[in-house]
Structures are given as C-alpha cells and as structure tokens.
Design a protein that fits this description.
Blueprint (H helix, E strand, L loop, with lengths): L1 H23 L5 H14 L12 H4 L3 E4 L2 E6 L7 H5 L16 E3 L13 H4 L5 E3 L6 E2 L13 E3 L4 E5 L12 E3 L4 E3 L14 E3 L6 E2 L13 E3 L4 E2 L15 E3 L6 E2 L13 E3 L4 E5 L13 E3 L4 E4 L13 E3 L4 E4 L14 E3 L4 E5 L9 E3 L4 E5 L8 E2 L4 E3 L7 H10 L23 H37 L33 E2 L2 H7 L8 E4 L4 E6 L5 E8 L5 H13 L8 E8 L2 E7 L6 H5 L15 H20 L5 E2 L8 E3 L5 E3 L6 E2 L5 H10 L7
Parallel strand pairs: 2-3, 3-4, 4-6, 5-7, 6-8, 7-9, 8-10, 10-12, 11-13, 12-14, 14-16, 15-17, 16-18, 17-19, 18-20, 19-21, 20-22, 21-23, 22-24, 23-25, 24-26, 25-27, 28-32
Antiparallel strand pairs: 1-2, 29-30, 30-31, 31-33, 32-33, 34-37, 35-36
Amino acid sequence: MKAKQLLVLAALVSFLIQCAAAQRNTLNSSTERSALRRLRSSLGLRAWDWPIKADPCRNWTGIECRDGQVTAISVSGLRRSRVGRMNPRFAVDALANLTLLETFNASRFLLPGSIPEWFGYGLPGLRVLDLRSCALNGAVPSSLGRLSRLKYLYLSDNSLTGNIASSLGQLNELLVLDLSRNFLTGSIPASFSMMSNLFTLDLSSNFISGTIPAGLGSVSSLKVLNLSDNSLTASIPGELGNLSQLIELDLSKNSFSGALPVELGGLKSLKGIRIGSNGLEGQLPKGFFSGLAQLEVVVLSENKLDGRIPGEVWSLPGLRLIDISANNFTGELPTNGFNGNVTQAIFNFSDNMLYGNLNSSIRFFNLTDLSWNYFQGKVSNDSWRNATLDRNCLQALPDQRSLADCWLFYSERGLQFDDFEASGPTDPPFPVSASKKNRRWVYILIGVFGGLALIIVMAVILVLLLTKCCSKGIPDQRGIADEGVAPDGDGQMVPKEPSELSGLGDVFSYEQLAHVTSEFSESNLIKHGHSGDLYRGILENGTIVVIKRVDLHSFDRESYTRELEIFGKISHTRFVPLLGHCFEHEHEKLLVYKYMPNGDLASSFYRATDLEDESLQSLDWITRLKIAIGAAEALSYLHHECYPPLVHRDVQVGSILLDDKFEVRVGSLSEVRAQDEDSHGNVITRLLRKPQILVG
C-alpha cells in the first residue's frame, strides 16, 4: 500500500514539474504577443512557420523564450507569403516591445532599407545582431555603439554606404565585427583600438581608405584581421606584431608600400598571412619565417619584393601554400633545409628573376609553378610532371625563353650560362653591351615604333569598316526595317508606341522599382545619363539591377522607345541585357537593366593608384585586348549583321560596360540609328564631332 502511495506521489510531482515547465515556455506577456503578431504581419511570414493561433514560444519557428518572455528571434531561412513577397522592406518596429530580446538573426532574409536609428537604444539587451545578405542600404547607425552588451555584429554582403561610425569602438564586449562586402568609405576609426575583447575584425571588400591605425596592435585578443580589397595606403604598422593571438592576417588587394614589417615574424600563432596585390618593396626580413612554426598559407604575390628566397620556407612543418609570384625575387632556389611535409604543399614562384639549376628534390613536390623565371639546365619533361616550367631557359623543353633573352639576363649579372647545346658554355649569340643607357634607347625605340604600328593598324581597320558600311548600302530584304524600325529621311528610326512593346522583358510596377531604389534617392543614383538618370537597386530575389528613369519633361520621348525597339531586334551577348520596364506613368518611364559589377571602361581603365610607375595597374594588357575585341564584335554586329546597317553614334568609354569577368556589354543604345545609302559622310561627321568616341 505504501509503495502505491509513493508511486502516485511521484507521478503527481512529475506532472506538476511538467506543468511548471510548460508555463515557463508559454508566452505570458500580452504586449509581446501583440508585438510578434505585428512583426509577423510586417514581414509577411507564412502561417506555416508562424501559425497565428499557436503559442509563439512553443510553436513558432525561430522563437526562443525564457520565463515566458521572448529572448531570441531568427527569421533566417523562413519564407514570405505571396503577399509578403510583393513588398519586402525593413519593417521590424515591433522588436522595440521585446524588452528581453538578446538575439535577432535575419541573415539571407531580404529586408531592403536602412537600419533604423532606434536599434541602438530600443534593444538594450541585444547580444547578437545578424543582418548578413539582407539587401540593406544607407549608413551604419552610430547609435549601435550604445548596445553595450552586443557580442556579435554581422552586417556583411549588403549595400551599406558612408563612413564607419567611430561609436562602434565603444562596444567593449564585442567579439565579432563583420562589415565586409559593402560600399563603406572613409577610414578605419582609431576608436577600434578600445574593443579589448574583439577576436574577429572583417572590413574586407569595401572602399575604405587611409592607413591602418597603429592602435589596432593593442587589441591583444584579435585572432582574425581581414582588411583586404580596400584602398588602404602607406606602410603596414609594425604594431600589428603585438597581436600575439593572431591566426589569420589578410591585407591583400590594397596599396600598401614600404617593407614587410619584421615584427610580423613574431606572430607565433599565425596560420595564414595574405598581403598580395600591394606595393611592398625590399627584401624579406632575415629569419622572417623562422618563428612562424604554425604557418600554413603565405601569399605575397604581385608586390615588388626582391632579394633571395629564404631557406626557411622548406622547413615550415604545416605549410600548404606559398605564393610569391609576380615579384622581383632573384638568385638560386635554396638547396637545403627540406622538411618531409613540405612536399605536400603548393609552391608558386612564377614571374620572378630566379635562375640557376633546378633542385632535383623539387620534382617530388605536390604542385610547383616555376614559370617565367630564368632557370637553366637540361631536364626531362616526364620527371617534372607536377611542375610548370614554361618561359625559362631550360633545355629539351618546349615554350622556353629565347636564347638571346637568356644570354642577356645571365651576362648582365656576370653569370655563366649553358646554351641549348650539350657542348657546354658558348659565346653569346650577339654582342652584349655593358651600357644600360644603350639598352634603354633600344627599349624606347621599340616602344615608339610599336606604338606607331598599332596606330596605323587601327586607322586601316577604321577605314575598312567605313568603306564596307558605305559600299554595302541598305539591302532590299527582310530585316529590322521590315520588323517595325524603319529609317526616316534623316537615317533615324521611327519608334513604336510603348503599348506595342509591353512584351519585352518583365513588367515591373512603379511602386516596386521606387522601393528598391529607396524612392530614387541620391544615395542610389549612379549618374545622370544623356537619355535618363541611372539608379542602382536590389530586387527581392537579390538581383542587383540598374534602373533608368526617363522623365519625358526633360528627355526626348523617342529615346527610350527607340532603345526598346533596338533591344527587341538585336540578339547578341555584347549588349547590356534589358530585364524589363515600367510604363505606368504617362510622363515617367522606367527601364531595368542587368547590373555590371565592373562599371564602365572609364572607371576601370583610369582607376586611381598610388603606385607611381603603374598608373594603369588595374587592367593588364590581356584584359585590355579582351575589351577591345569585345567592343569590336558589338560594333561589327551592328554594322554588318543588321539590316539595314546600324550606327551606334555614342560609343564612349562610358558606354562600354564590363561584367564580373570583364566581358564587354555595350550600352547607350538610345543613340543607335539606321544608316541609309548616302550616310558615309554623316558617319564621318559624327565620328569627328562626338567627343571621346572610339569608333562607330
């Protein structure tokens, strides 16, 4: 009997505990319940994830509660309802009523708009704010510096602009600050040196300028520092060598100058150092790699470093990659100090001035690139399968430097060179002058005559194009003219009415396009074009677009209809894709184009640099040739594959756009005209009259 009583008592206690637990996990506050429902409505979330009649603490996805109050909200991965998808926006004002909220995670959930200023004082308990890939724009609010309990701040992969608020340096408890891949400008705030608990600082892929504050070296807790792909200048401060816990350092793709600080060699915890694509000069500090026993990745490529490669690189036990390509390193490869694990690493020593015979041990390495150096000797191609040896001075291998080039290099340095014959050293194939002045004149003459030859070739091509256009005339066959774009007496096109073009591309609502451009705000304005104003916007699906706003009070009505006609008739990858349009308003028309990440030719070709001798460093000659060919293909299509032949009339550096792979996409098609039989003189007139025109 006593056993039964104990069993009943135990069951009763268990039931009471479960009831108490259920009570704690039930939302008790009517204010917070109302706030969550308003948040559900403003974000347009599906009933499947947040069922309206269920208890949010127990049944709503991403909601966490403690003692009957909301402490965490995550909408990352949730989907909007059909109505919610029509007008996404940053509408989270209801969060202000959740007084104990510690975490708000909306990563990869589109919230177009700017972060409200009240975030800084309306969410005092916030510890985690994750807004990665939310299509945010505008500035980072300075009020965020008041979130004294914040530990994690993720704002990467958005379109944030303006300077970085110095007030963020007041976040003493912050562990992670990630502002990467935005459009932030200005300098790195000196106040960041006060964030004593910070272990990750990522400001990469912005437009930050100025220098690295020396005070960053005092943030002793820092483990990851990524400032890559910005516009930082001057020398790298030696104070960074005080970051004893640093594991990853990435300063690549900036404009740093001076020598590599010897202090960085004391970062004993460092596993990755990436300072490629800068302007560093001088030799590597003596014994630089000796204290970096944990090092796994070294990238110092595309600098101006010189001297010999230190032998310590062979002895790094955990090395996986070392890339010192495109520098001025010289001398022979180190011959001793090989560590057994180093053979598994990838070595890129290409495009330097290394010479001498190859060490036979290197052929057993996992992957090695030694191309574009001056190594000599006879090697077997079969025994060096894991090595790239092109453009050296090696015997019995294809694709090597010329004998004259090799002789000149070795003789300048007073070194002995074995020619491509087995008989041993021979005399130079041509007299080698010891005078650098004479060689300089040779280079100057080559440059002058090469430039003249290029100008002559371009002139001949231009004449042939114009002659062909003139002789071809307007064939009497079906073509663009028969399909609705007929030339008038002045060679212009008679445009159709917009109602006949509604099937071209997607149809957008005015409200939708106004929203994605923040009501056509100045912050989204790209430039004032000659046929309309261009704005940047991000659609709900994350697609970045350019929207041309044509105000018919200011611009010619025919310009946009003519452009639509052209898009409807041409089919070539060399033209900017038209994604859609909006004709809702009688006096305001909107055209939507695909966004070109690398801008126009002017911004890419004339990009500023702090390197005195390489003012056009941003585009190499291969890329320039690729762009020239792409522009020529577009014009050739208009001139020779369209009937009647079309003349662009406005090919400028500003109308040649470049996609993410620097492929040409020609824009400004509102100036395209059909060429009549007597238009040869008009073409010449337009070429001479229009400023900055390249051809066509």
